[in-house]
Amino acid sequence: MPEEISGKTVFSLYEVAQGIRATLAKAYPNSYWIKAELNKLNYYPHSGHCYPELVEKRDNKITAQMRSNLWREDYRRINAAFIQLINEPLKDGIKILLQAKIEFHPEYGLALHILDIDPGYTLGDLEREKQESIKRLKEEGLFTRNQELRMPLLPQRIAIISVESSNGFADFMKVMENATTTWGYSFFHLLFPSLLQGDKAVDSILQQLNQIKKVAKHFDVVAIIRGGGGDIGLSCYNNYKLAKQIALFPIPVITGIGHATNQTVSEMVAFENAITPTKLAELIIQRFHNFSIPVQKAEEKIIDKSKRILEEERAKLKTAGKLLVSVFGRVVFNERAQIRQGIKILCLQTGFILKTNKEAIAGIPKQIGKGTEYLLGQQLQQLELTTRAMHRGGGVKLKDSSQGLIRLMNQLQQMAILGLKENRLALQAVEKNLENLRPEAVLKRGYSITRVDGKAITNSAEVNPGDLICTTLHQGEVISIVNPSS
User: What's the pLDDT tens digit per position in 444-474?
Assistant: First the structure.
């Protein structure tokens, strides 16, 4: 009850609180459905109670704020419903539709007692944001911009946006390292750490994308990697600003965000996406397989064809070698026979010519003598007739006969000289022929003389295997042993 103090009616604080409590209870006797943003859940594990901070924002400014209570049993029931429908627990940074009673406690003040939360509203709000982002990007002509880029045939240099301690990053790296070990594929990667969910995830990812853009020429692709999670945790990937940055990025952006439900806007505008980090790594590895398998088959084909060509050429070479040996053997045999026949004929001709020319040489002096003697005899007979005529003709004819005698003597002298000259030329010709037929001259022209036991041979039948033969050349001699296979 109020009391009088110095003529004033004074209420205690408790009485005021109770009055407010009674007034609110009378004015708001029922529960109400209220939409708000769950700014902070404030869950206390030791008691199981939650004390959520609820806010309402307009243009990113808080226009209303109120604390609330979510008791343990209600929290367990509501959280299970969120996990069942959205695959995510109740958490910070989501918009909710809650059923609550307005309560005022003298000790703790005004609060909303949360009785229930509709997970369908939260999911619907996320879908509305997603559709709005898609609509804006399509209207601006940006929705397929990143997909129009050209990824390198073998994307080896990868900029990764993830958290080093996350399971998704570990799964991605495991696949890549296994590819290097198993198939010898080579990769370079650099991690750009970032938050991957929650209100701050958008700004964190955008910051790392801006860092990568500065060194984009050093990378082939950007990979955004996040482990498993439900749609609530993925709401940041429907953000318009993030999706726009991905769409406009100068090199291909690929995503492995880790969920099996509907794609987020960031995944839709990315160059390529996979439902898990593992699948994303396998997509990259598949590109290497697609390249290496044809190369490997081509290599095997080249090797196989090369072997066949080598075998064919080796067989041809072997056949040609046998043919060459056969033909060369016949040629050598024929040439050897011709040489032997030529040597035989040469020897016979040389012997005949030497014999003939010896007789001719021996007869040359006699011929010369006989010719001269004949000429002299003729002249003497003419002289004798002339002398007789002189005696018969008298003095007149003596003069004429003297002159005739002189003429005869001159003719005799000239005929003798001419005869000697002609026989000298004939002798020189014979000497030249004899010079050409000398054994030394014949040998100089490339012929040779083969002897066995000092006897010249003209037939291969005259030698036996193992015989020691001496071949006389123009300069020097060659000693040989007859080969049994000759």
Answer: 777 788 888 878 888 877 888 878 888 888 7
DSSP SS3 for 168:
helix
From residue 413, how far is each of 199, 384, 419, 420, 422 by CA, in Å?
149, 17, 10, 11, 14
Radius of gyration of the chain (CA): 65
Residue 450 DSSP SS3: strand
CA 261 to CA 235: how far, in whole Å? 13
Q: How far apart are CA 383 and CA 218, in angstroms?
A: 132
Number of helical (H) and strand (E) elements in the chain, helices listed first: 9, 16
Residues 78, 116 contacting (CB under 8 angstroms): yes
How many of the other CB atoms lie within 10 Å of CB of 436?
11
* Cα separation values, 135 from 52, 132, 270, 414, 445, Å: 33, 5, 16, 140, 106
**Could you report the per-residue pLDDT of 130-189, keeping only the tens digit for each?**
889 999 999 999 999 999 999 999 999 999 999 998 889 999 999 999 999 999 899 999
pTM: 0.53
CA distance 44 to 42: 6
Q: Are 130 and 264 in contact (CB under 8 A)?
A: yes
Question: Contact, 275 vs 301, CB < 8 A?
Answer: no
Q: Is the dihedral of CA 375, 379, 381, 382 positive or negative?
A: positive
184-213 CB burial, b ≥16 within 10 A, e <16: ebebeeebbebbbbeeebbebbbebbeebe
Do residues 74 and 14 lie in contact, with contact meaning Cβ atoms separated by under 8 Å? Answer: no
β-bridge partners, 65:
55
Q: What is the 3-state secondary structure (H, E, C) of 379-399?
A: HHHHHHHHHHHHHHHHHHHHH
Among 275, 263, 209, smallest CA distance to 238 is for 263
Contact between residue 255 and residue 161 where contact means Cβ atoms under 8 Å apart: no
